[in-house]
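Hey, I was hoping to borrow your eyes for a little while. For a while now I've been wondering how a particular protein folds. The fold is given in discrete form, as structure tokens running alongside the sequence. Could you read through the record and tell me how the tokens relate to the sequence? Take your time with it, there's no hurry, and the full record follows here:
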Amino acid sequence: MRHYEVTKSMNRITGGVCAVRGVRAFGIRELAEREDGKESKNGLAVITGSGESAGVFTKNRIIAPPLTLTRAHLEARHRLGAVIVNSGCANAFTGKRGLSDAGRMAELAAERLNLEKDAVGVASTGVVGVSLDLKWIESQIDSVVAGLSATPEGSSAAAQAIMTTDTRPKEFAVELGSGVRIGGIAKGSGMIAPDMATMLAFIYTDADLPHETLETCLKQAVDTSFNMIVVDGDTSTNDMVLLTATAEVGAPEYDEEEFQEGLDCVCTELAKMIARDGEGAEKLIEVRVTGAETNEDAEVAAKAIVRSPLVKTAVHGCDPNWGRVVVAIGYSGAAVDPDLISLALSGVRVVDCGTVLDFAGEDVDMSGEDVGIDVDLGLGAGEATAWGCDLTCEYVRINAEYTS
């Protein structure tokens, strides 16, 4: 598994988003009754931290109103002062009312934080096609704002509030050698595929960076992290990653490579948490493809492997059925030469330059929580890593009963 080492230039720190100077957060999560009379887990979180901002959004052509609103706010001023997030209802495919409701969420936060409405980002996650329970949000906003804190507990409360079918909150933060900090929280468990997923991520840094730099760095980080995870192959209507720079450390000598490495690390670790927490998942799958003609070829091959239901079920059953991996490579669209492919499962080489090696099934230990698949296509210098999870009976149960 790929890990970022703790070095003089980057250390992991605690505190999630609240590890970043100038950021406060809080949230609540409770059971509530929906308008249709069914029980739903509702959550509400607020994060404050003012500065230049950038965002990356879903490529699904059906875009939820909160994304439409937030993207418009970013385009208008390139800055955010706060984010308000609800869980339990995606506010997606909800028409004009959905956009009005998203606007009301922005107003609620702006009024209480003394901000302009277009300085507030809005995000929602949950069931599609259901209107927001604005009365519930209005009844909870004051207690959430009152609880805003710059402590690790504030970050954890916000991370828990945005969960849906997630089984655990997702937080990660680092401090760079320059003293700059980058921290984030995320949610995501199902409807996860490249081009973002049913996932939200809110990342902050106390560096002093312009919008253009944040946008460039965020797109690069997302491409190698959140866009390289697959749980089930579906792409959601609500996917959003926001990055805000509070500029609390001033403007020291700036090393863009160092910042990019730190941002890549935070995004990658959050992405792996999402993949590991896939609905019903028991194992994290990491696929590393090297030797491709191009990086793009490596990416499509790696994604095809982690997306394959047959690979996912083999991993779940601890079955070293390497043939399924080869098949996925073949249909991925990447350039391949069967005589040059090498393949290892959990560190055990099973194919070497197109030759199948003698090995016993028990030689390949796939019983752990992390399973690695390494592929060398033998064609060039292209490489990429993707993450996914096994496919279990529990995934079917969760999604068969999602709204009932």
